[in-house]
Amino acid sequence: MFYYLSGFTDWFSPLRVFQYVTFRAVMAALTALLICLISGPWMIRKLVELKLGQPIRGADDLGDLAAKHCLKKNTPTMGGILIIWAVVDATLLWAIPTNKLVLLSLVTLLWLGFLGLIDDYAKVRDKRAAGLRAWTKLFWQIGLGLLIAGYLLLDPQLSKTARQLMVPFVKQPLIWDMGLFAFGWVALVVVSSANAVNLTDGLDGLAIGCTLTVALAYAVMTYVAGHAKLASYLAVPHIIGAGELTVVCAALIGASLGFLWFNCNPAQVFMGDTGSLAIGGLIGGIALMIKQELLLIVVGGVFVVEAASVVLQVASFKLRGGKRVFLRTPIHHHFEHLNWTETQITVRFWVLSVLFALLGLATLKLR
Predict the structure, then answer these.
(1) Has residue 3 got a pLDDT over 80?
(2) Is the separation of the CB atoms in 141 and 190 below 8 Å?
(3) So where are the chain's domains?
(4) Residue 64: count of CB within 10 angstroms of its CB
(5) Is-cis flag, bond preceding 41, omega within 30?
(6) At 242, phi and psi to the nearest 5?
(7) This model's pTM is above 0.85
(8) How far apart are CA 230 and CA 251, in angstroms?
(9) CA dist 42 → 39, 46, 253 (Å)
(10) Among candidates 158, 155, 162, 157, which has minimal Cα distance to 179?
């Protein structure tokens, strides 16, 4: 919205600052941060008044850790509403609201946020329930993935690049045209990213802290992808309009910082599936839009490790007659069983997330 003030530069020349993506990205981050910090206490009170407390996993899931996690009982959940609210407001204020990629990113955020909200409410309403059925959630996640794929593949300016498969460290696409397989690929990335963040959200501040570093990395990459000269210099796909996604990433950075203020140990609020599914889907969607989806495996390394630990545990349990690879999964619970404190696990995983993000950025030059 504020971008359009740059049209009045003939009347007041300093307004040209609103033309610059970098300025608007910084302002979007600050706006989202302020929205969270100012409205956070009010939202937490409302969630408490509505008795939307987080259901806690029992001893059958967590074993000896159940007693420790029981202390978190009645901490309000659905705090992801605050993150979504901040990102959407900041993006609409500081990005070009008619940009197709910006609109697609907001649709992704709201779609999965609403799905997570329904899932969270189902859990809260009946403490014994596990929320929506897995297949129901998967159906709507795949539906969003197909929608994103259709949008990207049918747009004349984006379709050629959207059909390609880029690989880190390689200048040219590994596959130049995936054809109809592109639909399945996009859906797979969206579903995987959304659920990886969801699985990571198990300790105070863990998921949102890792989101911060991933969003920072993709803020750089979206800026590069939207800048013709930088994209050409670094041999990455130049995506028309991708520069505005930098504002979206910056808004997510600000919202993450603001939410972390209330979510750090001991947490005053949890994001719930409302936040984790929305954040994961948004990150995956942005990665697809700039053709850096495989790089998400590196940049979002902590999310990948968390999800992989669950997959390995389930596979081992079924294929090896009940034998486990880890004491508990997701893997952060494994370290809890090794008597690491919650703060130790969270901060160490944040450190790893920073390292993964830096490694991912380094691949832009190592080609």
Answers:
(1) no
(2) yes
(3) 23-362
(4) 11
(5) no
(6) -70, -20
(7) yes
(8) 23
(9) 5, 6, 21
(10) 162
